[in-house]
Structure formats: structure tokens, C-alpha cells
Amino acid sequence: MTINRHFLLNLTLCVVLTAMSGCTSIGTKFRPEHVEWARAQGKATLTVRGYMTGTSKIKIPCNTSPAKAILMPDDPYYRGWIRAMNSFHIGFPATLSTKAEALLRQSPWTGRCIFTFKNVPPGPWLVMITMHETIVREIHSTGFGGSVSFPAVIPDLAYAPLTITSSDTVIRKNIVMDYSKRTDIGLFKFRKRATLSDVEEWTPPEKTPITPPKQSPFHSTQSLFNGQ
Questions:
Q1: CB–CB of 179/113 below 8 Å?
Q2: E strands, 10-165, where?
Q3: Mind listing the pLDDT tens digit for each residue in 20-64?
Q4: Burial state string for 111-132 with b = 16 or more CB within 10 A and e = fewer than 16
Q5: pLDDT digit string (tens) for 185-210?
Q6: How many other C-beta atoms are found inside a 10 Å radius of the C-beta of residue 224?
């Protein structure tokens, strides 16, 4: 019996990709008892503003208008989710468990890339914002010896740790993604989705337009979730 070479190639590719998908697993078990504190209704109001900067050090507000920013407990499980986002194989995105996703706090875009979270309890948190979206072309096998390509959006996510104390009531911070520190941008380099960013003290708003910037035609309102 003769085995079609294209079939054998696709079968081999499938096995390889399945093996690689293990790299995108969160790798840490979700332990609700470790993050139960995050369910409480606190008294703090956290407002964050996203900026991008580079070698010029000029701060530019994020140039997308994502539906939400998210706030999550700073816990090994959620850190594992971020590591999974940055893994090499993006075809098998890691997803949060239902119980873990229920602890995400969400904030809508309110102009100048500003997001506000209310009733936040004290504890260690991670804030995540979409700073920029890159349109790429993904190539996928058809399974019959051919391939098809289509545009896809890869979000540049900024994340940063923030600690809220029991005495905090109003917290205002800038989240600054410094592109000059990134080592994953260049020819033949794999682009990470999430970048650990700096937290700076809030400064008076610049005179930038309050209306949302123009979205990418391929923008996804789910860009912050499940690697989409």
C-alpha cells in the first residue's frame, strides 16, 4: 500500500503541534483558597492609564480601544497563564478555568487609554492592558497538501503587578510599556504577547483626544482573553 507523502507530512505536523501544545499549558493548578480574598468588595478605587514608550522616551497612549482591561490576583496560576500566552506555539492557547476567570475584574475604556476598577480589596494584583495590535498573516494547512493564509491580530499586552493595602482608597498609576527593552522584535524572532511593564506615579493628563482612536479592522473585543 502506497502512503501519500502529503498525508504523511500532515500527520507528522499534527503530532508535532500536539506535542508543542503542552508548552502552552498553564502548568499550575488553580487553588481557589489562595485567591479567595479577591472576591471581597474593598474600598479602593484603582485607575490606571496605559502608555507606550521607546528610545525617545516620549509617552504615547495605547493606540487601540479594547473593550476592557482586566485586573487579576497576582497568583502563580495567573502568572502561568501569562507565560502560556508568551509560549512559542500560539495555535493552542491556554484558557483559564471557569472559576479562575470569574475572579477577573474588568474595566471599560474611558478615553486616553484610562481604566478604572472600583471596590478593589487589598492584596497583590496584576493589571493587563492591550497597548497595541499587530496584524500578521497566519498560514494553516488545509490537510490536502495545500495551505491557506488569513490576517490575524496579535495583541501587545502590558501587564504589571500592583499591591493595594488596607489603607488605600484612591490609587492612580501609569502603566508604561517600554519597547526599547524588548528583545523579541526583529527578523525571525518570535513575538511575545505580554510584556512586563513599569508602574509609575500618575501625572496630569496630556491634551490628547478623548474620543477612542481608530480600531484595526481586524480588532477583536476578546483580545485580552484566552489568547484570542
A1: no
A2: 44-53, 60-61, 68-73, 105-108, 114-120, 123-141, 147-164
A3: 333 457 888 999 999 999 999 999 999 999 988 888 888 888 865
A4: ebbbbebeebebbebbbbbbbb
A5: 777 777 788 999 999 998 766 555 44
A6: 21
